Structure formats: structure tokens, C-alpha cells
Amino acid sequence: MSEQDLPGSAWRRSSYSDAQGNGNCVEVSCGAGAVTLRDSKDPGGGLLTVPAEAWRGLRAALRG
Question: Region Disordered: which residues (predicted)?
Fold first, then answer.
């Protein structure tokens, strides 16, 4: 899957990535029952898409 496969996606950057502002961030787009992640340094590169339920489980586990 590429960015072209997700037309109109709204990407948000992680608030915890790269406090120095060098562009080293993870970006997330939510929609259609799934969450897609990409590297902000290479927005045209590969994407990782996971079911929304799995994303919620990961977030809950990280929050402890």
C-alpha cells in the first residue's frame, strides 16, 4: 500500500517524536476501521496499516 492508495488521508504527527524539529516523526492516519502509520521523512515510502481494534489495544498496553 502506498500514500496514493489513501486519497484524502489526514495525517497527524506524534507529539512525542523528535523534540528538536528535525522531521523525525511517526505520522498516523485513522479511517475505515484501520489506522495507518508512516515515516514523516519518507511519506511516499511504505505504510503500515493495522485494524483499529489492534491500535486501541497497543495504545492501552503502552499506557499501562
Answer: 1-22
CA distances from 20 to 5, 6, 14, 43, 46 (A): 31, 29, 13, 19, 24
What DSSP designation does 42 have? -
CA 41 remoteness from chain centre: 12
pLDDT of 50 > 90? The answer is yes
Query: What is the side-by-side order of every strand in the sheet holding 34-39?
Result: 12-13, 26-31, 34-39, 48-51
Q: pTM for the full model? A: 0.70
pLDDT tens across 13-37, in order?
877 666 666 667 888 999 889 999 9
Q: What does the domain layout of the chain look like in residue ranges?
A: 3-63
**HSE-up of 11 (CA within 13 Å, CB side)?**
15
